[in-house]
């Protein structure tokens, strides 16, 4: 066993795993905080919806589409000046978070929009008929009804962010991806590569499992 | 009282106005159960949604207790909607909330009730719709009839004066339909609230409604007390509905009539006369012989009625008809 993993520095792996956790955790938090309201607005501004606004919808949708169509590896680079402006550096764990959010938030916003559209229109109508205003419809009926879908969306976003975070190693972002590129790829340390990939796989599996459990718990159907 | 004054509704489809409701005037009295019957697409759903402005009207005025509901600003509209309960074909309960929370929901939205008031009202309503044991269940754990009873309890939470029922029994089996209709009729009696009920089943109208409007292609084609419209339908659409609800095959009926001899009369009994041993005595007095071709004895809401199609041979027909009419029986000569 030791002979097979000669290059593996477990302290380094531990630190890198923690970095990945922080990157994914922080960027997921901000992606949800930013993506959720955007998703709700996308839904509300949509055709035949509560606050139908064709122009606002087109603008918002365009911005989301642009961010989603730029390959993440390019987004990482394009975001560098903005990241420096925002937090003073484009390197390390902190430097990776803004591009991760820029990639994660629009992705999550679309998932939120979709899960809100899945809510039965009859429920919106019934809530309107009870004399609810738009805010009450959103917080009292739409979001609770869409909760399982939104949680599933958070899971998918988290997993996407794991793979994005691994890519951020390219711009010196830190974490398991960084380790895999610097040691596994550039120094041909295959054992490091295998370990990092295995850890990422486990990470994704755990996320999916927790997400599925939560969806099940919140689904009353 | 709900007054429709030349109310109309049209939808803009591709720049053209498609009429959903032609100018309609009618009055729904306070405390009555008013049925609106029509095939799907006849405009009845639109009509009922005009009453709580889920759909804005395109013209005319809707006065509810002498107030023009089109004049309400958004806040007034929301306050007004609390006084108009609504139940739906597919119940539209929130799947994320328990039965009790679903019933409490409109009261919470209103923001004018204390926690204690809400809790007490929910308990009272649960008991009223016989669901006290199911307070903490989620809608998916309930049967269709139970879901609709939750819907009714929810609609009553803020003590409305009007209850709108949008095909409330169309997704239920016949037995459950009966129990839900009975609940609606009881509530109407106990609380004196006005019920506007739309349906495509004349049977539903027969069981609970006081008056009915028949709709066809965005127009009210016939309107009146249920006993009138049901027993003496004038418009072809109304006749279709009545025949449908009685499961009468019209071709078969025609065939039966052709085979029968003599005069054919349709007798309609209503109220007390339904129970009188009339036919026998009339036959004896006038010397006519009769055979029953078709018939139905049932209730319209609480009033018993009977409708018989007879063929009469021999004897003195005039005396027979006079005797029947004297006994308050409506006689229609079919042939």
From TrEMBL, chain A:
UniProt domain ABC transmembrane type-1: residue ranges: 17-211
Topology of the protein relative to the lipid bilayer: Multi-pass membrane protein
Keyword Aminoacyl-tRNA synthetase applies: no
The keyword tRNA processing is annotated on this UniProt entry: no
Localization per record: Cell membrane
GO CC, alphabetical: plasma membrane
Database matches in Gene3D superfamilies: MetI-like
Keyword annotations of the record: Cell membrane, Membrane, Transmembrane, Transmembrane helix, Transport
InterPro entries the record matches: AA_ABC_Transporter_Permease, MetI-like, MetI-like_sf
Pfam families reported in the protein's UniProt record: BPD_transp_1
UniProt xrefs under CDD domains: TM_PBP2
Membrane-traversing stretches: 20-45, 57-80, 86-109, 146-172, 192-211
Subcellular location, principal: membrane
GO biological process terms on file: D-methionine transmembrane transport
Homology family: Belongs to the binding-protein-dependent transport system permease family. CysTW subfamily.
Protein name in UniProt: D-methionine transport system permease protein
TrEMBL record, chain B:
Role: Part of the ABC transporter FtsEX involved in cellular division. Important for assembly or stability of the septal ring.
Keyword Ribonucleoprotein: no
Matches recorded under Pfam families: ABC_tran, NIL
Segments forming a coiled coil: 243-270
CDD domains found in the cross-reference section: ABC_MetN_methionine_transporter (cd03258)
GO biological process, one term: amino acid transport
Lineage: Bacteria, Pseudomonadati, Pseudomonadota, Gammaproteobacteria, Pseudomonadales
Database matches in Gene3D superfamilies: 3.30.70.260, P-loop containing nucleotide triphosphate hydrolases
Top-rank taxon: Bacteria
Compartment(s): Cell inner membrane
The protein's name: Cell division ATP-binding protein FtsE
Membrane topology: Peripheral membrane protein
Cellular component annotations (GO), alphabetically ordered: plasma membrane
Record flagged with keyword Coiled coil: yes
Keywords (A to Z) from UniProt: Amino-acid transport, ATP-binding, Cell inner membrane, Cell membrane, Coiled coil, Membrane, Nucleotide-binding, Translocase, Transport
UniProt similarity note: Belongs to the ABC transporter superfamily.
GO terms of molecular function: ATP binding; ATP hydrolysis activity
Domain ABC transporter: 2-242
